[in-house]
Write a structure and sequence with these properties.
The chain is α+β, with helices and mostly antiparallel strands. It has one domain: HIT family, subunit A, CATH 3.30.428.10. 25% of the residues lie in helices and 20% in strands. The structure holds zinc ion. Zinc ion (ZN) binds next to loops.
Length: 149
């Protein structure tokens, strides 16, 4: 699909299933925040097949377990908003989710401290306010992968 950020993505997912690709988000305000994108072009949740939905459910269970074991996440916010796709016409949404681990207490990982200032409330909506080196991002991916497999 032309003009679709997810169909034209050049970055490789760090983990994938039969129907979904998992990418680490640029913004790591919430340690382990990812983007989970359907691996075909579909514009809304009702367009998912039963098999894609079932695969998503298994990923949700695996991701929640991985974020809790890897980083001590307290809970996970799952959002499927796709508002960006409606900023310009022609509208061209592609189903994707933003799993954001949330933390009741500050977390230390690889020498950095992550504090979820808004725990118990809506997450901080400002994007890309905590960027990390590629090396640090690889370490986060590796830690999640230990528990996603
Ligand atoms: Zn697409």
């Amino acid at each position: 699909m032309q003009n679709c950020d997810y169909c034209s993505v050049e970055k490789l997912p760090f983990w994938k299933t039969k129907h979904w690709n998992l990418f680490l988000s640029k913004d790591q305000t919430y340690l382990g925040r990812c983007v989970l994108a359907l691996n075909r072009h579909a514009g809304s949740i009702p367009e998912l097949s039963q098999e894609e939905w079932a695969d998503l459910f298994e990923i949700m269970k695996k991701f929640e377990n991985a974020a809790k074991k890897a980083f001590g996440a307290t809970s996970i916010n799952w959002t499927c908003l796709m508002n960006h796709a409606y900023k310009l016409k022609p509208y061209n949404p592609h189903v994707h989710w933003h799993p954001r681990p949330r933390y009741a207490q500050p977390i230390e990982f690889s020498g950095e401290t992550f504090t979820d200032e808004k725990f118990g409330r809506h997450y901080e909506a400002i994007d890309a306010n905590r960027k990390l080196s590629d090396e640090f991002r690889k370490a986060i991916e590796s830690e999640l992968l230990k528990y996603l497999r």
